[in-house]
Amino acid sequence: MQQVRNSALVSHSSNHAKQEIIMEEIEYVFDEFENYTYASEYFQQELELEERSRLGPAQWISLVLYSLAFVLGVPGNAIVIWFTGFKWEKTVATLWFLNLAVADFVFLLFLPLYISYVAMNFHWPFGTWLCKANSFIALLNMFASVFFLTVISLDRYVHLIHPVFSQRHRTLRNALCAIGIIWLVAGLIAGPALYFRETLEHNNHTICYNNFHQSDDSIVLMRHHALTWIKFVLGYLLPLLTMIICYSLLALQVKRRAALTSSRHFWTILAVVLAFIICWTPFHLFSIWELSIHHSSAYHHVLQAGLPISTGLAFFNSCLNPLLYVLISKKFQARFQASVAELLKHTLREVSWSGTVSEQYKHSETKNLCLLEIMQ
């Protein structure tokens, strides 16, 4: 009996010790969050877990940007998907626009989850698997969107400046291979979200965050640095340099050929590059700046306010893409106008036909009534 009692005491002490260890780990995680984490769930920034009674101005501004991106971007990208995927013949250009629109469209479809997350004061009620899946899908489509913007700039340059090379190698088969590679690379870059993203509950408040490591600060620092710099180099620096070089050479070449057409083309290209810079530069600068929080909390409040707003600007680029990149392609514009005209013509024809049938039916009914009265 004494042995059973001793084993029970040992078991109780063991369970108590486990609970203490778990509580210490939770407290450690929360202490770490207070030092260097912020609200930017999609792009591997985590939530700063101070208890707040209401949303601050930065969060309200970010919510407005998220909502605008969703309201404007979903129908805009859906229209591009409808025409390029179902109404037009498949060409290299339409494949680029189709996949760009798909990446932006899927990205924006999951945006309401993040809007709810911010609106509920950064409380994640959707579970661990959706935390992982949401982050992975968002990162996958974010990188795919940026990569397709880069490929479109390269394709425009090669097609207009090197027509012989373009005619030989710019084929649907090669385009499909490039599309597959883009989605694969984007998936590999987004893959860590499936491993690192977790949920943590504290005082009835659940967050979706990156758990880089439970206790080793050096591993946390190394992984945070690696993912941030990979995101910056592959998702911003190389695409930006590629677009600037391709569009600069393209603008110079067009200017030599025709000054009249170069003006419109130049301003369209300038708008595309400026939109990319304005939307993505603040986010990546704040992401790199956030790395300093591992060593000092001097700019804690600046980052806490800046990261949500810069993330909102990055989201907003997904609703600008359908407008800006359609403007570059004259063929795209001509096809779009022709498709809209054909759709309106078909709709009016159906309305006119149904109206004519209705009138004929009414006339026939009236005629039959008159005959019945005469017969009576």
From TrEMBL:
This protein's GO CC annotations: neuron projection; nucleoplasm; plasma membrane
Domain G-protein coupled receptors family 1 profile: 76-325
Main location as per UniProt: membrane
One Gene Ontology biological process: glucose homeostasis
Compartment(s): Cell membrane
GO function terms (MF aspect): adipokinetic hormone binding; adipokinetic hormone receptor activity; G protein-coupled receptor activity; neuropeptide binding
Keyword terms, alphabetized: Cell membrane, Disulfide bond, G-protein coupled receptor, Glycoprotein, Membrane, Receptor, Transducer, Transmembrane, Transmembrane helix
Membrane topology: Multi-pass membrane protein
Transmembrane domains' residue ranges: 60-83, 95-115, 135-154, 175-196, 232-254, 266-289, 309-328
Gene3D superfamilies from the UniProt entry: Rhodopsin 7-helix transmembrane proteins
PANTHER family tied to this protein: CHEMOKINE-LIKE RECEPTOR 1 (PTHR24225:SF74), CHEMOTACTIC RECEPTOR (PTHR24225)
Similarity comment: Belongs to the G-protein coupled receptor 1 family. Belongs to the chemokine-like receptor (CMKLR) family.
Protein name (Swiss-Prot/TrEMBL): Chemerin-like receptor 2
Organism: Monodelphis domestica
Gene it is expressed from: CMKLR2
